[in-house]
Write a sequence for this structure.
């Protein structure tokens, strides 16, 4: 038997963007525990905007477990928040009610800024700006990435891989202090759980660097020539991968056009600051698609067209602060309106 440190992680009740919360409990197991072995637990919902003080208990229901290589016998336990009966999903628990389909694959490109002393890492501390954008994206060298960002990003990558998270890659982004990681998963819950745990690991890692992660989609504002942060959402279904076809694709894009407002509603707050039509984005009130077009709402990879309209598509509108549970579910909801014959 060994004592395991189980970090129960959940999303709180803050609006419009929930915070990640976590607390540890110690339990003994013969070997690294399976999800079914993990007990329900509770927390004080009155401190997380999830309950009133008089009846404050909320319940944590484990839904996924990952090894935590930073701790001896450590595990990260993603949880859903339930009502005190342990069975009814709490109103803040989006995961419980989203659409899921193991044949739906998602690749999320999470962009974010590293911030130190209130400015992006590498910006002058006394105000002002570093060199204009241009060489930072996928850049190398101290003048482009500084001396600590890469250490953070590499360490985060290893933590995710140790946890079994399907991290697919990393790159320095267009703005100084801005980075991206990509996570791929099959099924909306599975893919989105991994994004939330990867976000948690990044925030926790940065504590020791005295660096914060700014997830906001346009932290420097819309009036300066500095990119915002997105979470491009690449998706495919079994039908899109195996059958596809131009006719189906066009019907699908018509449905995405029809529901554009419903998509924007769950694609993250303040997206009007980011989706301006500049900086590789489409305007928030327009929908379009285009082959290899990084100014489109949906980018169609060359490979998709060359392969008889089969493969995956990239919705470029979701922003860095959006909830991947809601993004994936909305995409599946729109896809479900289009007959596959
Ligand atoms: P870019 O920066 O050029 O837009 P990235 O390489 O950052 O592209 O991200 C592309 C993403 O597409 C990857 O995260 C990958 O997991 C995802 N992806 C690739 N194939 C599929 C697929 N069949 N279904 C869903 N997502 C996919
Ligand atoms: Mn990318
Ligand atoms: Mn990017
Ligand atoms: Mn992209």
């Amino acid at each position: 038997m060994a004592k395991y440190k189980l970090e129960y992680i959940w999303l709180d009740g803050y609006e419009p963007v929930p915070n990640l919360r976590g607390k540890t409990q110690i339990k003994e197991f013969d070997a690294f525990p399976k999800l079914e072995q993990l007990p329900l637990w509770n927390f004080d919902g009155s401190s997380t905007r999830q309950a009133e003080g008089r009846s404050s208990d909320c319940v944590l229901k484990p839904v996924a477990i990952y090894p935590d290589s930073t701790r001896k016998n450590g595990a990260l336990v993603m949880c859903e928040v339930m009502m005190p009966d342990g069975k009814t999903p709490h109103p803040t628990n989006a995961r419980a009610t989203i659409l899921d389909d193991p044949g739906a694959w998602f690749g999320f490109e999470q962009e974010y800024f590293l911030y130190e002393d209130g400015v992006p890492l590498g910006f002058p501390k006394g105000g002002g700006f570093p060199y204009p954008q241009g060489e930072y994206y996928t850049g190398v060298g101290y003048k482009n990435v500084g001396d600590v960002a890469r250490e953070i990003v590499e360490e985060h990558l290893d933590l995710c891989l140790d946890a079994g998270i399907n991290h697919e890659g990393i790159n320095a982004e267009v703005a100084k202090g801005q980075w991206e990681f990509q996570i791929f998963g099959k099924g909306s819950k599975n893919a989105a759980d991994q994004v939330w745990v990867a976000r948690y690991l990044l925030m926790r890692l940065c504590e020791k660097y005295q660096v914060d992660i700014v997830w906001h989609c346009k932290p420097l504002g819309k009036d300066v020539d500095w990119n915002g942060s997105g979470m491009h959402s690449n998706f495919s279904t079994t039908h899109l991968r195996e059958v596809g076809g131009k006719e189906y694709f066009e019907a699908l894009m018509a449905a995405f056009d029809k529901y554009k407002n419903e998509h924007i509603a769950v694609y993250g707050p303040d997206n009007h600051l980011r989706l301006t039509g500049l900086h590789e984005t489409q305007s928030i009130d327009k929908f379009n698609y285009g082959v290899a077009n990084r100014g489109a709402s949906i980018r169609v990879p060359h490979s998709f067209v060359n392969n008889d309209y089969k493969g995956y598509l990239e919705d470029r509108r979701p922003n860095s602060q959006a909830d991947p549970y809601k993004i994936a579910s909305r995409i599946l909801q729109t896809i479900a309106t289009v007959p596959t014959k």
